[in-house]
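Hi R.,

Here are the chain sequences for the assembly we discussed:
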Amino acid sequence: MNFVAALNDVAAKNLRVLEEHIRKAIVKDSFIFEACEPLFKGGKRLRPMLFLLCANSKTDCPPEKTMPLATALELIHTASLVHDDIIDTSKKRRGVETANSKYGAQIAVLVGDYLFAKAFQLVAENNYGAQVQLILSKLVKNLCVGEIMQDRSLFEVPTLTEYYTRINLKTAIFLSSCCRLGAIVSKMDNHEVENLTAYGSGLGLAFQIIDDLLDFFGDEKITGKPRGGDLKSGVITLPVIRALEISDEASTLRKIATSGADVEAAIKIIQATDAVDYCRTRAEAHIESARVNLPFTLKTSVALALEQIADFIVDRTR
Amino acid sequence: MNFVAALNDVAAKNLRVLEEHIRKAIVKDSFIFEACEPLFKGGKRLRPMLFLLCANSKTDCPPEKTMPLATALELIHTASLVHDDIIDTSKKRRGVETANSKYGAQIAVLVGDYLFAKAFQLVAENNYGAQVQLILSKLVKNLCVGEIMQDRSLFEVPTLTEYYTRINLKTAIFLSSCCRLGAIVSKMDNHEVENLTAYGSGLGLAFQIIDDLLDFFGDEKITGKPRGGDLKSGVITLPVIRALEISDEASTLRKIATSGADVEAAIKIIQATDAVDYCRTRAEAHIESARVNLPFTLKTSVALALEQIADFIVDRTR
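And here is the predicted structure of the full complex:
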């Protein structure tokens, strides 16, 4: 299922305006544009879309109040992808050649830094205030801590708590911050701010669990990545953690997980357990928690779009 | 001459308080501290010191109003060094092993990102306002554009204008922003803000020209770097630009500069011209311009420290 197809008219209209703003944010310098423009192709725009929907969920918030921050969120997300691709020495992202592969690590580091800085510039220029700046800077810091945590414990089996801490830092805080910012910018009351934050958090946890599942069992033609890539590179995720708990072949699986060798055998061992169902159930529980946190006070059209995003996240195939 | 020894009591007292604040900013996470602490050893603290002196140049500005931003400036500088060291694949910086060499490029990218984010967090938490945020984000963006410009034109001879654009983006804007921020935070009048900004800009241009000179003619034992490192890696600086203009052996020098081979021969060609004197004269002119821009209204002790910094910059040997 395509993300954009899953969106209703409200969301789709926002998306078109957002694309113009992203383009405007990177046109200044000709090389920056040349290097950055391909990076913005093919993204789902999930983060700015969550922000925009939440910002417009009670009354219409004027685009000049929302679009700069929506753009900043996508710039931050893209910057983190550019830096991740250096880390993973990935060749392709969103279907196009990565900055790292095209221009080398040197330029890729700087292009990522540029996008981070440009995001903070957009926010300062549009006077969003210290609270918004603080949420954004903490979000970036948490992304880094989550990634560092992951890189520092490659080929080590995390506890369930460690796994959740990591996906919270890497993904859930980002998604919940987008929703929280939307609620703050549109001046919703505290209760609504907290509820939309909780919606985003549930969404984020489910999103990452499904991501980790797709890494093993997704259709390579759709995901564009070889199966078991995470395990091979030492990132041990929920399907493995679950299978290690209950499989008769746990010791073999542990050897594979802590060495990265023979990923296909690991996939068979995981498939012989209830790990896939277990992960789906966990993801669905987080989506359910997201759903029940949606305030009753939202406009129907927006509530519907936020529900559609929740559906999309568990049903997606890439 | 040692930078700290060049400072008077006012500056030295600030420096001690600053060190505590830097330490506090990175202690949160044990790995971050382990990775970051060595990075902060041995730095000159030139940027936060300029900020602190300017902030205290008319009346005493309370430390709680200045130290978070001073710390943020040093975090940003250090983050940019960490990312530069990935770019240059340097093994040592400030006399200690680089993050890149110790933990690999992966972690070094993230540690730099963490420091950038932490800097913006400090500024948001302490309510410096949109104007300060904007100066900081533009400063980081300009650093990136300057570095990208440099990386994209390695082994190409820049025009004088291109050289000045690059050192302005890479160094002068940072130093002038530090002074400007000091003047803004201490609520100086517009005239003083502009003058201190101009002081910082002159300082920055001189600083980079001397840096470029030291790269060729500094004492390796003091600079800790082999002579001609810039030329070897394709970065063509003012001594070369000047020598190309007037040397009889310009065509040989051009071949060396555009290939990076035989740096020792290039040094001899440059030395046979007036390039060293020319660069010194340019640097001194920028320092002089910095000096004349110092407002008369400053406290004597601070004016003296700012003059000492100007002296230090042309006299330094590393």
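Chain A has 15 helices and two strands. The domain at 3-315 of chain A is CATH 1.10.600.10 (Farnesyl Diphosphate Synthase).

Let me know if anything looks off.

Best,
T.
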